[in-house]
What we know:
With 329 residues, the protein is α+β, with helices and mostly antiparallel strands.
Amino acid sequence: xxxxxxxxxxxxxxYEGYILYPYRKTAIKNRQRWNFGTLxxxxxxxxxxxxxxxxxxxxxxxxxxxxxxxxxxxxxNFLQLVQESQNDAQALTDPSLAxxxxxxxxxxVADLQLETLKSEGLRRPLVLxxxxxxxxxxxxxxxxxxxxxxxxxxxxxxxxxxxxxxxLRNNTLLPSGAMAKREEALPRSFVSAHVLLGARAAQFxxxxxxxxxxxxxxxxxxxxxxxxxxxxxxxxxDILFCSPIILYDYPKVAAESEGDFFDxxxxxxxxxxxxxxxxxxxxxxxxxxxxxxxxxxxxxEALTPEAMxxxxxxxxxxxxxxxxxxxxx
Length: 329
């Protein structure tokens, strides 16, 4: 399944809160990551008060025409956060400033047959270790073995309508078990975990605006930690995005955006202006820090007046408004 039409919005969700202005690791707000949708190892999660999440669940609807043979594709995305190398950490005067670097982890499960899922379901172990580490990942990431489980169940709820339940669980074991501290649990966590689903010979049903005949079934779909929305090119309904941040159907990154600032609640223009006001020492720290922070600085310093004006804002979807009637005496 080709998920290229949703890669940009999925990446924005993956890195939301990863690093915040002023984009340097000595900033207090950047000593701990602020990503949404972290699934901690179960032992650690259940030992916290209140408990932290160790799994996500999405229930959604699939419309299937008679005699069709639909296929389902699943892509699991999350970040693994590991501290910078021991040598770099030892060079710091304050060890608490050690930087957590992101490694993108992806698992694809392709061409699942709906009929097989109906009769047998799916329980797929997930193992991510040094053997499937992405190229360019920090060497420290190879020391951690991540284990999880993807579970899918299907039931027929009405004519042409199927209900699917997806669960993603973090089953990674911790050396210290339930006594583990956050520093031990975090590099074994699924950070910003989300799921993309693609359907062939079938169509997903919007849970935000379902057709009237499916409204009751949509209301009975229960979510935990994510919410499924239609994604891709409207009006196609072959891609579903289970996001830890509630979105509308067919979410997009604004075409005017020149690149990520890792804070979707802020305006690109405002953040660009703030970066421009940083001191030379602060900018140098950005250059020597996280590569993603360095890209923000390089992109901002290269902004042309025309690009800056484009970031100021745009009006979309103009519509006529009926004139207000004057109050009658």
